[in-house]
From TrEMBL:
Keywords, ordered alphabetically: Cell membrane, Ion transport, Membrane, Sodium, Sodium transport, Symport, Transmembrane, Transmembrane helix, Transport
BP GO terms, sorted: proline transport
Parts of the chain that traverse the membrane: 6-25, 45-72, 78-99, 119-144, 164-187, 199-217, 262-285, 306-332, 364-388, 409-428, 434-455, 462-482, 488-508, 555-575, 581-600
Any single GO CC term annotated in Swiss-Prot or TrEMBL for this entry: plasma membrane
Protein name, per record: Na+/proline symporter
UniProt organism field: Aquimarina spongiae
Length: 610
């Protein structure tokens, strides 16, 4: 497809502005590594919230979500629970505050704060750094797969070439080019560049989402949607079986559902709940989300940032997702039915853009989606090098080097991580495969140790190392033995093996130093099983009080999950013309907002003033 001149100009202008901003803030960012990786803890929480939302609005995830909406209808609203998307609620309610109180730079540095500096702590420090790097490499591969599929549909030039005996496809060439541009501006500006460009990107994406929602609302009627989809496609709820039969509509979708392994939707839902509770309690993984929390000025700002992320991300994003899905169903559905088998459903998003978006708006939308990709990619390549620089190079190799040396090494680390991640991307089979492995297998290995670190005083550094090591090995090996089983169903086995590693480390290792535990518990103030530590602190500080907010936090998390879900459902019900359900969901949103203001926000502000 050939883009109009105006569309190409809009895209080029966006890329130039992004690069110029990265170079403009480079002097401020390169002052020291705290400025480079955390923005000197000076960036306002609302900018960080917009940046965090922009970072989560990635193009590969959006392509996946459009495909999910196309195939599973309203039930696709549950599928982001695979991550789980409601870990943001747990972070908002209590984990952001717990994490921000540490005043560290990275998740690996947090290990020293929690476990001290003995051999077990050093091993734990190293393994969480390894996890951060592995997860970043996986996500780079995930982004590489998505942006390549997206770009080749729009850009008319054939960029394929041969490197020795290896054929580099046009899809891969476009991905390499866009990733190179993103890497340059991120390297130059650090966190300042990432946040600044992501705020611009968020504005562009929000405008794009509103445009798509408007186009879909004005060009597709409720009757057209009903005629294009099978029974139960519009039904949010489900039994044990998915109960959506695409025969006679787009027969090949039935094969897609079978390949995804989501036919037993009720069982899938139970697995998502089970996995989601553990994954959410574990806290944010060591990537861009954690980096945003650590970049805030204080714990209240960290919590408000997480709440803002939930609000500003869901509604505009699902206007776009639902809009493209229904446009594809109504206008591409008959064509896809005639195509027979072998359809790549992950290209529905770019195909819909190609067919339904007018000149001018197409350039804006493509700039917005490029922004979505670049924002998320930039967030990862800003977060991951912090672990190599701060937690390996500075800690073990050159502890007394100059700030300029650390910043330069961060440049080298970023380039190295991107190159290795791209090599992974060349061997990725699909976005869905990478999504499910990252969310279910890899994060399954992370959950056990990172839940116990918050809630149990006796959980020592060797337990953390043992649990993380067992989890990483299980996440890599278990899927190999069960190649036909979707990774989400392997989560309990991976979690169990990780828990076994935790318990083995606890039994073989002695308790951590009481002084370290007292410092952690007194500053973080988590709830959980901390009585021996609490008793020791009470002797020294009779005024100290324990955190008794477990049931209040549990209540707020349940309400928060419902509240978050309303922001997903509002644009869905609006665009498919189910106004009765829309009014109910808006009512639930208002009620849950009021409850959270009273039981979470007001109490948080009151505590901060004490």
């Amino acid at each position: 497809m050939s883009l109009a001149t105006i569309d190409i100009v809009i895209i080029i202008c966006y890329i130039i502005i992004t690069l110029l901003l990265g170079f403009y803030v480079s002097k401020k960012a390169s002052k020291d590594i705290k400025s480079y990786f955390l923005g000197g803890n000076e960036i306002p929480w609302y900018y960080l919230g917009l940046s965090n939302a922009s970072g989560m609005f990635d193009i590969s995830g959006t392509m996946w979500a459009v495909t999910a909406m196309f195939v599973y209808g309203l039930k696709s609203a549950w599928l982001p629970w695979l991550w789980p998307v409601w870990n943001q609620v747990f972070i908002m309610v209590f984990l952001a505050a717990w994490l921000r109180r540490s005043n560290v730079m990275t998740g690996a540095q947090w290990i020293t704060y929690r476990f001290g500096k003995d051999l077990g702590a050093r091993l734990s420090h190293i393994i969480v750094t390894v996890f951060a790097i592995i997860s970043t490499l996986g996500f780079i591969a995930y982004f590489f797969e998505g942006i390549g599929k997206f770009a080749t549909i729009f850009f008319p030039w054939d960029l394929s070439f041969t490197l020795g005996s290896i054929l580099i496809s046009s899809e891969q060439s476009y991905a390499l080019l866009i990733i190179a541009i993103t890497t340059i501006y991120t390297l130059k500006g650090g966190m300042y560049s990432v946040v600044g460009t992501e705020v611009i990107q968020f504005v562009i994406m929000t405008i794009s989402c509103l445009v798509i929602g408007y186009i879909a609302f004005t060009t597709v009627s409720g009757d057209q949607i009903t005629a294009a989809v099978p029974e139960n496609w519009k039904n949010l709820f489900f039994g044990m079986e998915l109960d959506i039969d695409w025969t006679g509509y787009i027969d090949s979708v039935n094969t897609k559902i079978e390949e995804d392994g989501f036919s037993l939707f009720g069982f899938l839902f139970m697995m998502m709940i089970f996995k989601g509770i553990f994954a959410s309690l574990a806290g944010p993984v060591p990537s861009y989300d954690m980096q945003r929390i650590l970049s805030t000025k204080n714990e209240v700002d960290a919590s408000k940032m997480s709440a803002l992320t939930i609000v500003v991300l869901s509604i505009p994003r699902y206007l776009m997702i639902t809009g493209f899905a229904i446009l594809g169903l109504v206008y591409l559905g008959p064509e896809l039915q005639l195509s027979g088998a072998g359809i790549d459903f992950e290209t529905i998003l770019p195909l819909a853009i190609q067919r339904f978006i007018p000149i001018g708006l197409k350039g804006l939308l493509l700039a917005g989606l490029l922004a979505a990709f670049m924002g998320t990619f930039a967030a990862f390549i800003n977060a991951a090098p912090a672990y190599l620089v701060n937690d390996i190079y500075k800690k073990y190799i050159k502890p007394n080097a100059s700030s300029k040396t650390y910043v330069r090494f961060s440049y080298l680390s970023s380039i190295l991580i991107v190159i290795v991640g791209l090599l992974f991307g060349f061997f990725a089979s699909s976005i869905n495969t990478l999504t499910v492995w990252l969310t279910s297998a890899l994060y399954g290995g992370y959950a056990a140790a990172n839940v116990l670190k918050w809630i149990w005083w006796r959980f020592n550094s060797y337990g953390y190392f043992g649990g993380m090591l067992a989890g990483l090995i299980a996440a890599s090996v278990v899927p190999v033995f069960f190649p036909e089983t979707p990774a989400i169903y392997l989560f309990p086995m991976i979690l169990l093996l990780s828990f076994a590693g935790c318990m083995l480390g606890v039994l073989l290792g002695k308790p951590d130093d009481m002084e370290v535990l007292k410092h952690f518990y007194k500053t973080t103030k988590p709830w959980g099983f901390w009585k021996p530590v609490y008793d020791q602190i009470k002797i020294e500080d009779p005024e100290f009080t324990a955190n008794t907010d477990f049931w209040k936090d549990t209540f707020n998390c349940i309400v928060g999950v419902i509240w978050q879900m309303t922001f997903v459902l509002i644009p869905m019900y609006l665009l498919i013309r189910q106004y009765d359900y829309l009014s109910v969901v808006i009512g639930i949103m208002l009620v849950t907002t009021f409850i959270l203001k009273k039981t979470w926000y007001d109490k948080m502000i009151t505590k901060a003033k004490i």
